[in-house]
Design brief:
The chain has 13 helices and 15 strands. It is of the alpha/beta class and about 375 residues long. Helix 5 packs across helix 6 and helix 12 packs across helix 13. InterPro entries: BCAA_transport, Leu-bd, Leu_Ile_Val-bd, Peripla_BP_I.
Length: about 375
């Protein structure tokens, strides 16, 4: 049984230490967007899972059984993701699936996993993935609704009540736009301008000019992911906005600062995870051990900085491995699902997870950290 608080990487080490003769391989399936427009999400996710599988198998696997990983690159294409999900279940005979770098690919995978009774942990952000609760579907990132709530809490503390919003029309951007509109009033925030842009748009100056010319705008909020938010950030700087800019957790990475330009991004705020401020964590922080261990291992393996998105994959794999170790039958998808739903107090890079039949995310708002770009890097907002 789990202790009250379990740290992910420590758990992985403990799982590997459980000795016993290997009876069979535990087949795990993954479909992520390692290439294509969402590669900034899927590439660190794929690398993270491959690294963790190797680490775990070197320690003996799960209860003496090695993990056999089958990983597909769906390129961000929902149709490919659906095909790969079907292949993972029917041909590769996996007992569980991790993946869905984007909301679109996640929705394709979950429809297959749910129909076939295979536990699935998504790496995408939209609240529609786990609300309403689906029996076999879980996820690791905070929801877009939670991001709205965290942002509006910060705005409320600063006395900001009138906001201009510019959102991407992709699945994540549209979902977060809708969620922000739904909860804004709870924080005394009014959306006084509401603009959108498409995934291929290369300049948002017209939309941002309309926002700037709207009376009373005190801040700009940009729900979206990919290159769009970086363009918005540069355009905001070029237009000389003198109000705060907020982005979503969909771009919470060092790569985003590089893409947008450090000067343009200076002062930008967004809700993010402890991974982005690993150097600022105190040793008594509940996430310190797992964040620093993962950061060190990933840098050593790939000579790259960690990202929030790789952290989502880290947590998904750690959660799934832990559930498999506790399942009545490690080869029975339903038993794994049941064990996953009983997870409580599991500390990951993203937050502390406690699932239940009513909650397949398992995170609360405290798992988010409000971050700000200062001197070209992420700093916690004091």
């Amino acid at each position: 049984m789990l202790t009250k608080t379990t740290t992910a990487l420590v758990t992985l080490a403990a799982l590997g230490a459980l000795s016993g003769a290997a009876q069979a391989e535990i087949r795990l399936g993954v479909s992520v967007s390692a290439t294509g427009p969402a590669a900034f999400l899927g590439d660190p996710e794929a690398k993270t899972i491959e690294m963790l599988v190797e680490q775990l198998n070197e320690k003996g696997g799960i209860n003496g059984e090695k993990v056999a990983l089958t990983l597909y690159d769906d390129g961000g294409d929902p149709n490919k993701a659906r095909t790969f999900a079907t292949r993972l279940i029917e041909d590769d005979e996996v007992v569980a699936i991790i993946g869905g770098s984007t909301t679109g690919t996640t929705m394709s995978i979950l429809s297959v996993a749910e129909g076939e009774g295979i536990p699935f942990i998504s790496l995408a952000g939209a609240i529609s993935i786990i609300d309403p609760v689906r029996e076999y579907v879980f996820k690791t990132p905070h929801t877009d609704r939670m991001a709205c709530e965290k942002i509006f809490t910060d705005m409320q503390a600063q006395g900001i009540s009138k906001v201009g919003m510019i959102s991407g029309t992709d699945g994540f951007g549209a979902s977060m736009q809708a969620q922000c509109k739904e909860v804004a009033g709870d924080y005394g925030v009014e959306i006084v301008a509401d603009e959108t842009y498409g995934p291929q748009d290369a300049d948002m100056t017209p939309q941002l000019t309309r926002i700037r010319n709207t009376d009373g705008v005190q801040a700009v909020l940009n729900p979206g992911f990919g290159q769009g938010p970086a363009i918005v950030t540069r355009n905001v700087a070029q237009l000389g906005f003198d109000v705060p800019l907020y982005q979503s957790h969909g771009v919470a990475s060092n790569a985003f600062i590089e893409l947008a330009g450090a000067d343009s991004a200076e002062g930008l705020r967004l809700p993010g995870t402890a991974l982005l401020i690993a150097d600022s964590l105190s040793e008594d922080d509940p996430q310190y051990e797992v964040v620093t261990s993962y950061t060190k291992a990933f840098k050593a393996a790939y000579n790259q900085e960690v990202s929030t998105f790789g952290g989502y994959a880290h947590d998904a794999f750690a959660l799934m491995a832990d559930a498999i170790s506790r399942a009545d039958d490690a080869e029975d998808p339903e038993a794994i699902r049941d064990a996953l739903e009983k997870t409580s107090g599991f500390v990951g890079t993203t937050g502390t997870y406690s699932f239940s039949p009513e909650d397949h995310l398992g995170l609360d708002l405290s798992a988010f950290r409000m971050l700000e770009v200062k001197d070209g890097g992420w700093q916690p907002v004091e």
